[in-house]
From TrEMBL:
Taxonomy of the source species: Bacteria, Bacillati, Actinomycetota, Actinomycetes, Kitasatosporales
CDD domains xrefs: MFS_ShiA_like
Primary location recorded for the protein, binned into one broad class: membrane
Protein name: MHS family MFS transporter
Bilayer disposition of the protein: Multi-pass membrane protein
UniProt-annotated stretches for the region Disordered: 449-474
Domain of life: Bacteria
Species for this entry: Streptomyces zhihengii
Entries under Pfam families matching the protein: MFS_1
Amino acid sequence: MPAPSTGQAPAPVNSRSRVLVASLIGTTIEFYDFYIYATAAVLVFPTLFFPSSDPTTALLSSFAVFGAAMVARPIGAIVFGHLGDRIGRKATLVASLLTMGVATFLIGVLPTYEQAGWIATALLVLMRLAQGFAIGGEWSGAALVATENAPSGKRALYGTFPQLGAPLGFIIGNGLFLLIGALLPSAAGADPSQPSEAFLEWGWRVPFLFSAVMVAIGLWVRMRLVESTVFSRTREAGLVRKLPLATAFRSHWRQLILGTFFMLATYVLFYLMTTFSLSYGRTATDAAVPGLGYSYTTFVLMMIFGVLFFAAFTLISGPLADKYGRRATLIAVTAAIVVFGLLWVPLTGMGTLGVVLWLVLGFTLMGMTFGPMGALLPELFPTSVRYTGSGISYNVSSILGAAVAPFVAVALWEAGDGSPWLVGVYLSAMALLTLVALLLGKETKGVALDGGETPEAPEQDTAADASPAVPASR
């Protein structure tokens, strides 16, 4: 772990507005792309790419591909982390955003199963893996841009800006789906919760194609960034590692494990409240596995209302983590998530008011647990392996939490005879694991991101480190 701070943070080389916009816009696009896939995975992909006589089987297949991207994320974290710790944050962030944008745009032009058979499904899987690969390098780079350029005492606040991309991406992505659905209404007398023929034919493609506009804006902003002083000093001191991955696993394995479990409850809650809840909220009450029975439009509007609390409390969590510490803040929030999981059935059984309260509470807790992670995970690692270490922790946790969460939730939903009580217990159990990790960890509020690393004794690196520093170019 980086050494305790003994002085002021280095003077920023990027303006505050440039740092905040650059860290926010990339994760907004990242989550926009993931949300539109998540929405399509529930709304149209089971029909267009996974035809089956059993709707539950088709939905599970669609969720399985959704989760497949999480498997690619650690690979992306390793590749982009290596580049970010070797050549710099700026170029790596541009590459990850471009990869993400191309993959998302191509999903919008794919043929369907009816047009190309299994080839269509295979291409969807490939593009989904490319999305996951790109996101593996996106988040940690955005978090580093924010935290490495943050003024003294405001690192957690700055770290909430890349996190704010999650609720903004949700609102933009689902808002666009709602707008398209309103312009392409179902035929008279048809089930209003089902997509129209025009929506199934071409309307669903529009959000994926629109991502090209957002990526172009994001690339323009990021091309104007300057490398942080923290990374520049590390490079000039000859501390850039030849193999950052080897250094991270050899000298910082404990931080990798703790960081992974720090994120576990966050990921499970995140994907239960977004991907799974959309399916649960729309499923008819008289279906084989009964849900809440709301129309798509009604439930998404309820979710967007809840996501407003997600955004607000993401920002609120930053000053709290700066004042009370990341660990103390997250211990309290994680304990609340344990309780929330046990209240899942009582809340959703109280009618519309209870469902809205369930969404508000869930998304509020989501903001409070997600916000401090933008500072906490980067603070676990020294500059020479920060991109790699924070990225691996964040993305390996996505496999344990996010990749299986929607899939497990549907299975538990079925096992509970239509009641989601087992889904709530699952959330509480994952939160308990995170709580244990937080109790075993240490506070990182006072560490200096550029402190303690010297050419003679790299920060926390052992003499047996198999990844020697690369001399700075002159």
